[in-house]
Each structure stands twice: as structure tokens, then as C-alpha cells.
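Re: [ENG-882] Designed sequences occasionally contain unexpected residues at chain ends

Forwarding the minimal case from QA. C-alpha cells:
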């Protein structure tokens, strides 16, 4: 939920920052509703105070054995006015909330202003692999090795779904087990295994609804959604809770399958693993104190980078410009792996700070002591990593001229000692 105080206190800055996210915002509508809401609410509170006063007067009169008839009549009149005014207050509040829930988070001051062309490459690690032969794509390699069956996956479900087989299935399992082990044992995250179906409140809390409804898979018989990322259930672990200050930061790592309709993306990378409707991912989620969240964002990026480095995959980090940020993000780094076969940089991780945007929607607060007023936490998340595109990078960067695939050293213990996938 967007903080209405930002509009009340500095509407020009809000308009400017929303424009940087390609959002045209006219505050006049919400300002007029907000002014009327405050006016009616003030009158309503005054009437309620009058009612309480009259009720006290009636109690005194009854104790003194005096006739309270006139005061009772006044109280009934006040009660009637309250009953008439309450629906308007409720209606105005709902109309204001409906506007606020559709306003995206504002970009942090350190974010470049502009579209994708203003994204900044922050740093590189490793060099793209150079082969003495023409590298094959992951599709050619996987089909020749019989480790992914794209045709049967389409038969089972439809296009852009995956059927891993044999060493391909084991490599997928090895990847997410390896990632969870690193993040829990080395980076201090607590592992959780959340539901992959969530309710509307959960999807609204993290910002997927109502904005991105068309990209979500929804059950027709229930108000439940398949998760697009573990960010949704994991962030909502603490919805409507007040955390203790000494508990922060809370850090979770979760493996889940993820489901995305990718509405509006048809025709883009429709073959192979680059754009699929179901994929595995290890997600990292943090709950922090506001003053710590940007330091924690840098640590989150470093945690995701470590996986690339251990897998020895060349990557680069992009600081996204304002127009390329997600609905809920205040700042985001994309980490892209280079895939030699398709000769592309593929986004494999996004690490975002949402500041208090999600926490306000999901009502997640913390309290440091008995006398301190609860305050909103800051939430962060990042992919640690998304597996479909990580699989692309491994297959294409670790290929041999004969079409075999070397297994990265760190994954070999998870593969039963297998060092190479061969025909």
C-alpha cells in the first residue's frame, strides 16, 4: 500500500518519481477524496464523543433517580447521525485504498532515471567462455544427450514447460540442493519449504495483485494462486505480526517451483529454457530494520554472486533504472550469466529492496521495547538462483566439442561423483 502521507506532504515529488517509473499520476482525485474523508471522519469522531458524553449524563441521571428522557432523545438523534455518516466514511476509505494499492513504490535516490537503456553495469566477474569450436545451444545439447524432453513436456502440459530426464533431472536437483546448502551453512539463512499455493491476501501483500493478475495462474474453484516466486509465501510468513527488534535481520532461504503465465511475452524466446511457465528457484528473503536495509541489499547481492562464483559462471551485475524497476521495488540489481551457445546475457537473479512498501501492505512491523511504537520493517528478496537459466548457462558454458557436458566441480558430490554427462 502506498503511503498517503507522501502525497499529503510532497505531492510534487511523488508525481516526479512516479513519472520516472513511467507512471502518470494526477493527485487531484485522491486529494479531494482524502480532504473529504478527513472532514467527515472528524465530524464522525465528534459525534461519537457527543454520544459518549450523553451516555455518561444518562448514567448520572439514573443514579440520581432523575428522568433521562430528553437526554435519551438527544442521544438517539446523535446515534442516527452517526449511522448515516459511517457508510460515507467507509466508502471514502475504500476508494482511497483502491487508489493507493495501485500506486507503485518510488525509486530510491541512487537509482538512475530512465528506461532499460539507462541500466548501469556495476561490475563483471569472469570472462565469457571462448571455444575452439562453434558452441551449441542448450536445446541442441539437451536433446542430443536426452536429458530434457521438450516435446513430451508440451504433450503433457503445453508449450514452455520442461521435462528433465536422467542426468538432467539429477543436475537440476543437484543445483537447488547445492544452493540451499551454501545459503544456509555459509550465509546464515534459515531454510523454509513454503506452500506453492497462496491466497489473495498473500499476493496482495507482496504486490503481485492487483497489478499483475494476468501473469498469475489462479485456481478456478478457489481464491488461490500458484506462486510466481517463493517471495510471496515467505514474505507473508510474518504478515500481520510484530517482530522483535533483536530478531532482525530475519533471513530465509526457500526452494520452490515457480509458475508464471508470462502474459504478453509470447514470441520471445519461446523455445528452450530461457522463458518457461514453470521453473525451480531458490529465493532469499530478508526482514530488516529500515536503517540497515541498503547494507543488507549489498550483502544479498554478494550472497547470490557467491553461487555464480562457485559454479565458475561468468556474470555481470546491472543496477536497474527507474523505468525498469518492478512495481514494488525501490532499488534492484539484476545478475546476468553469460550463455555461450545463445551468446546472450541471461537474467538469473534479481535482488531488490522494497523498503516498507510490502510491509505496509502486509502489516509487518517490529518493536524494540515496551515504550517504543511499532514501526514497519523493510523487506528484501533475491534469487539465489533461478534454475532454468542457470541450467542454460551450465550446459552451454561447460560443453565439450563432442557434445558432452562437464559437471562443475562443486556439483559433482551432488551428482554421485559424476564428472561428465555423455551420450
Amino acid at each position: 500500500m502506498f503511503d498517503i502521507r507522501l502525497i499529503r506532504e510532497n505531492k510534487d515529488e511523488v508525481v516526479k518519481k512516479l513519472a520516472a517509473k513511467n507512471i502518470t499520476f494526477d493527485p487531484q482525485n485522491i486529494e479531494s477524496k482524502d480532504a473529504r474523508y478527513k472532514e467527515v471522519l472528524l465530524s464522525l469522531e465528534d459525534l461519537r464523543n457527543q454520544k459518549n458524553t450523553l451516555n455518561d449524563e444518562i448514567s448520572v441521571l439514573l443514579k440520581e433517580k432523575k428522568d433521562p428522557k430528553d437526554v435519551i432523545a438527544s442521544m438517539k438523534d446523535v446515534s442516527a447521525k452517526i449511522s448515516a455518516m459511517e457508510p460515507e466514511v467507509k466508502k471514502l476509505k475504500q476508494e482511497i485504498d483502491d487508489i493507493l494499492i495501485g500506486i507503485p513504490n518510488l525509486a530510491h535516490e541512487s537509482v538512475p532515471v530512465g528506461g532499460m537503456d539507462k541500466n548501469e553495469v556495476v561490475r563483471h566477474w569472469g570472462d565469457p567462455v571462448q571455444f575452439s569450436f562453434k558452441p551449441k545451444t542448450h536445446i541442441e545439447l539437451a536433446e542430443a544427450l536426452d536429458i530434457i524432453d521438450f516435446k513430451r513436456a508440451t504433450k503433457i502440459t503445453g508449450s514452455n514447460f520442461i521435462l528433465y530426464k536422467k542426468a538432467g533431472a539429477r543436475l537440476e536437483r543437484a543445483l537447488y540442493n547445492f544452493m540451499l546448502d551454501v545459503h544456509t551453512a555459509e550465509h546464515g539463512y534459515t531454510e523454509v519449504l513454503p506452500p506453492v499455493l497462496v491466497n489473495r491476501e498473500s499476493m496482495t501483500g507482496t504486490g503481485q495483485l492487483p497489478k499483475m493478475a494476468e501473469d498469475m495462474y489462479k485456481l478456478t474453484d478457489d481464491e488461490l494462486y500458484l506462486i510466481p516466486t517463493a517471495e510471496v509465501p515467505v514474505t507473508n510468513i510474518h504478515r500481520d505480526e510484530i517482530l522483535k527488534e533483536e530478531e532482525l535481520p530475519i533471513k530465509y532461504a526457500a526452494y520452490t517451483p515457480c509458475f508464471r503465465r508470462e502474459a504478453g511475452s509470447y514470441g520471445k524466446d519461446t523455445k528452450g529454457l530461457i522463458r518457461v511457465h514453470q521453473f525451480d528457484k531458490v529465493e532469499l528473503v530478508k526482514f530488516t530494520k529500515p536503517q540497515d536495509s541498503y547494507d543488507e541489499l549489498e550483502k544479498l547481492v554478494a550472497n547470490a554472486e557467491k553461487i555464480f562464483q562457485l559454479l565458475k559462471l561468468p556474470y555481470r551485475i546491472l543496477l536497474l533504472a527507474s523505468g525498469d524497476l518492478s512495481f514494488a521495488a525501490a532499488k534492484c540489481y539484476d545478475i546476468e550469466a553469460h550463455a555461450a551457445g545463445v551468446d546472450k546475457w541471461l537474467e538469473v537473479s534479481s535482488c531488490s529492496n522494497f523498503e516498507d512498501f510490502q510491509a505496509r501492505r502486509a502489516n509487518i512491523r517490529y518493536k524494540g521495547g515496551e515504550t517504543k511504537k511499532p514501526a514497519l520493517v523493510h523487506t528484501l528478496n533475491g534469487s539465489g538462483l533461478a534454475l532454468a537459466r542457470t541450467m542454460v548457462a551450465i550446459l552451454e558454458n561447460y560443453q565439450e566439442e563432442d557434445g558432452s557436458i562437464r559437471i562443475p566441480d562443486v556439483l559433482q558430490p551432488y551428482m554421485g561423483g559424476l564428472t561428465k554427462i555423455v551420450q
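QA comment: On inspection the terminal residues look reasonable. The chain has two domains: 4-100, 116-421. Proposing we downgrade this to a documentation issue.
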